[in-house]
Fold this protein.
Amino acid sequence: VSTAVATADALRRAPSARQAGWAGIALGVLAWFLALPPLLVRAPAVPVLVGALAVGAGGFAVSRGERRVGWGAIVAGLAGAIGGVASTRSGVDHLEAVVTWSALFAAMLRFATPLVFGALGGIVSERSGVVNIGIEGMMLMGAFFGIFGADLTGSWALGLVVAMAGGAVLALVHAVFSITLRADQIVGGVALNFLASGITGYLFVEHYGDQGTPDDVSRVPDVTLPLVKDIPFVGDVIGKMNLLTWLALLAALLLATFLFRTAQGLRLRSIGEHPRAAETVGLSVYRTRYLAVVASGVLASLGGAYLSIGFLGSFNQNMTAGRGYIALAIVICGRWRPGGALAFALLFGFSSALAQRLPTFSESGATLFQALPYVVTIIAVAGLIGRSRPPAAVGQPYTRE
Amino acid sequence: VSVVQEPAEGAALGGEPGGGPGGGQTSTARLAAYLQGGGVIVPLLTVLMAFLAGGLVILATGHNPASTYKAIFDGTGLNWFLPWTSSADRPAAALNLQQTLIITTPLIFTGLAVAFAFRCGLFNIGGQGQYLMGSYAAVWAGSTMAGVAHFPHIVLAALAAAVAGALWAGIAGLLKATVGANEVITTIMLNYTAIFVGQYLFGLGGPLQNDAQRSVPVSNDVAASAKLPVFWGDPQLQGLHVGLFVALVALVVFWVVLNRSTTGYEVRAVGLNPEAARYGGMSVARNYLLVMAVCGLFAGLAGAMDVLGWQFRVATNDITISQIGFIGIAVALLGRNTAIGTLFSALLFGALLSGTSQRNLDPTIFEPELASNLTTIIQGLVVLFVSADVLVLTILRRGRRLMPARRSGGT
């Protein structure tokens, strides 16, 4: 009886320690937030006090066994205090130039869009048991063939179709090598990235030469929401978003529903966890994996197309610049779930948005700030890896008995 | 009958249902096992297939594959070795060959940086970042410390590059060893970070930007005392520097460490099967950290050879264009992660790079800008073919079908 009471006691206590940890994390964020616009508290003592509270809450959580959340709160508290104090010491005009929340959030969504598409592609493929390092290359194919198609046909919609076809072809190569030929999926994926870089670079030089892609190419339009546009904060962020950004959000929702609410999704996941068992109950491992890999190529290519005909309106060699790899990191951090991936894509998008605005503080440091998304990726992958469990059969070629 | 052969084949085909459960092995470990076996034929056929596919690309875009490849071959300077090359062509061929060997030198190092990791079951895609960090350190050490004598200055600069590369790769190694962070992702992110570090250091207003030319985003020039001696050709025209011999020594060191030392034994054991190695009392984490640091050391030296041998400065434009570290992946894979294989595939890709360079390729036959992308395509195809070892599979397929039959016949 006494052990039962103790267990019940511990169960009652555990959530409170976890809540303290989460509260600490929130306090850490608050410590910095207080010193930023619009509140702009100028007394350094305030962020220090709030940060200290966060560290205290984190320490409490750690002492009660909630180590991960607790340490998260301690780090958040320290970062919040340091950032807050730094903010109180920098000029108000600088702060207001960098931290315009509506512009930051709008930029966050812009930067997150290709990452969301890439990560969703990675999730589809890896949930079926095939590692797809080639996401980067498939994005690049989408970026080039998107603008190529839009330029040839004069229509962005057909451009998107051509982009998806480009991504699908490269994905099909990956499927043939990794599923039928049982190649090493990681090495094969890296090969595809070289291949995509070479193919798109070759065709770019061949077709557009030194002039680059034309300026008047048909672009994916922005969606203007009539009433929402006039709401003060929300309107600035989502009132005039690109169609592909809406599509990315929709795709995340649809994929989450498909994977976790439909029988087909369950089958896909079971093939990624235990292909032998799935085949035993009559599912075709090969066919499902082929479809999943090609779907991942289509999704990734939309992310690339967003870069060329959605956002910039031009193409440069290797313009994806590692976004496909960041998308893979997002897959891991988001624990192979569309919702989690969306959240982390927004986090990475925010770090890019911030990096874009930070140069106000230091001109020569501007280039260094551009490394922020990549550094954040390393930290996120290192910090979250222990909690994240990949599908059991991922990366293993499957052979029929 | 096949008792002796069986373990070898079982290792090569680990993961096959006939070969027992291969779940404990990582895919890279399986690949490492694959790549150790096999002779010269398979890599040669792989290259042939890649070049044929590249030829199709040339043909499909309306160029002549034969004359294109001929022009690239002439650009490599390898015709210097052909006895029928006329004495009038020889000086130009010699210049081109010097270029080829100058590029081969860093490729040997970055190839080793990838190969050593593969032998431990790690995939080091971070050769590019490690190479860049090495070149930054080399140019810094080579352009400062003015009073140092010739030979010590070179050694110090190369040492700085090796340490910088090792530390940079060590970040990925440490994260892999402590929290198990996927080295593919961390090394790629470190590549991009290294690019921005360089653009910050040598960009306008950066801390290591040129003291005299404040409007040009380059580093200071390497002092004469830190320049590698040139032993073939004119030092003013990028003659061949002694870094090639350093690279050859590195190949020997790689082979000896891997095949004739306890460390190498552990590295290979972890690469073949980390679980078994752990069970055998080896520290897998320690090996991961050590191997990544050594890989970074190799790649860092590649940067040192380029900076001290012929570039003598680092320009921010070159930082983003450079592909030496990435091509190291193809070099290692095609060379089957062996010392001798790395040497020959570094020579192949060195020749391909110099043959398609702006300086060596005749632009009237094929645009160098197109050709450099062609190199990337061929590089991708080589890695793709090696990843599947399509040819090996076809050759082994008969053997694989026979194997279970033989086994059941024997028992």
